[in-house]
Specification:
- Helix 3 runs antiparallel to helix 4.
- Helices cover about 40% and strands about 35% of the residues.
- The chain is globular.
- With about 170 residues, it is α+β, with helices and mostly antiparallel strands.
- It has a 7-stranded antiparallel sheet, sandwiched between helices.
Amino acid sequence: MKILKNIFLSLFTLFLLQSCIISEKPNMAYFSDSGRDFKGARFVSINVPMFLAKPYIKRALKKDGNREEIINIVKKISKIKVLTVENGDRTMLKEFAGYLNNNNYEDWATIKHDGDNVNIRVKQKGDAIKNMLITVNSDKDLVFVDIKGNFTADDISKMINSATDK
């Protein structure tokens, strides 16, 4: 019985360790399926398992003094993918923005901070927002955060207001 318990514990630990996947291949469809040559751009993609990330995010938000309503929005997140691009260019960003517009993403907010642009786009079906894409660009470095969940317009507005207040 003890051996069976140790085997189960080892397999469970192995599952947890391999669940946060980091790769040098893009994890977003536009970059991986487009067949375009991105002229020396280097990609790093991270798929974050939410059962590991949510406690850390909530703890960091509480530590920063964020309100409970922002922490409640984190509970609605079901999946996060992060893609960083080094040596990206404005053309890549412009083509990606066109791709998002063609795929029913709506531009909700653009926040400028210390020379960086933060853009928030959402994919909405009725009143439900199932997908939010946050783009951060500064010179040649780009960061894309693809967040899936079940949000309302009020949730997104609270998040944007919280970010612009600080």
